[in-house]
C-alpha cells in the first residue's frame, strides 16, 4: 500500500506528459491571412517581419541572400499534417533602400488556393503574366487592389511521397 499511491501518481503524471508531448505535434497548419500578409509587406523592415513571422507562425530563420537591389530572408518551419512531414518556406525580399518588399510563401501541406481565394473577393482579378503562370503544370490567379499585387499558384509536382501539389502565394506592395 505504501507504493500504491506514488505508483498511481507516477502513472497519471506520465500520462499527462505523454498527452502534452503528443499535442505539441500539430495536425493543423496555421497561415497568415491576406490582411496579415499585406500588413507585413507594408513594414519595409526585415526586423519587424522577423519578429512577426517567428512569433505568430513559428518559422525559424534559414538564410539571407542579397544582390545589388534587394536582400531576401528565408524562413522555414517543419510541420506534420495528417501524419506527413512537410517544410513550409516563407521569403521576405526587401529592397536595399527599404522602399518596397515582397512576401512569398510556399508549401505542399495546405491548399493555399482554397485558403486565400475567398479572402481575395474584394480584389480585382487579372490575367497572370508572371513566369510561373506560364509553366504547363502550374495554375495561377493574380489579383490587385490600389496597394498590393497578389499571385496565388497551384503547381502539380512530384513529391517524395508521390505526386502532389505545391502551393505558392506572393504579396507585393505597389
From TrEMBL:
Residues 1-20 form the signal peptide. This is Uncharacterized protein. It comes from Flavobacterium agrisoli. Keywords: Signal. It comes from the Bacteria.
Amino acid at each position: 500500500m505504501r507504493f500504491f499511491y506514488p505508483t498511481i501518481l507516477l502513472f497519471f503524471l506520465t500520462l499527462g506528459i505523454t498527452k502534452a508531448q503528443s499535442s505539441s505535434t500539430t495536425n493543423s497548419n496555421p497561415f497568415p491571412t491576406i490582411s496579415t500578409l499585406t500588413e507585413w509587406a507594408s513594414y519595409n523592415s526585415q526586423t519587424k517581419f522577423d519578429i512577426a513571422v517567428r512569433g505568430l507562425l513559428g518559422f525559424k530563420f534559414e538564410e539571407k541572400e542579397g544582390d545589388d537591389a534587394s536582400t531576401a530572408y528565408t524562413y522555414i518551419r517543419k510541420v506534420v499534417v495528417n501524419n506527413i512531414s512537410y517544410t513550409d518556406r516563407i521569403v521576405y525580399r526587401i529592397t536595399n533602400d527599404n522602399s518596397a518588399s515582397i512576401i512569398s510563401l510556399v508549401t505542399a501541406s495546405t491548399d493555399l488556393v482554397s485558403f486565400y481565394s475567398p479572402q481575395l473577393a474584394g480584389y480585382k482579378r487579372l490575367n497572370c503574366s508572371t513566369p510561373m503562370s506560364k509553366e504547363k503544370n502550374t495554375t495561377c490567379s493574380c489579383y490587385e487592389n490600389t496597394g498590393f499585387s497578389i499571385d496565388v499558384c497551384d503547381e502539380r509536382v512530384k513529391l517524395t511521397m508521390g505526386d502532389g501539389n505545391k502551393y505558392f502565394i506572393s504579396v507585393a506592395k505597389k
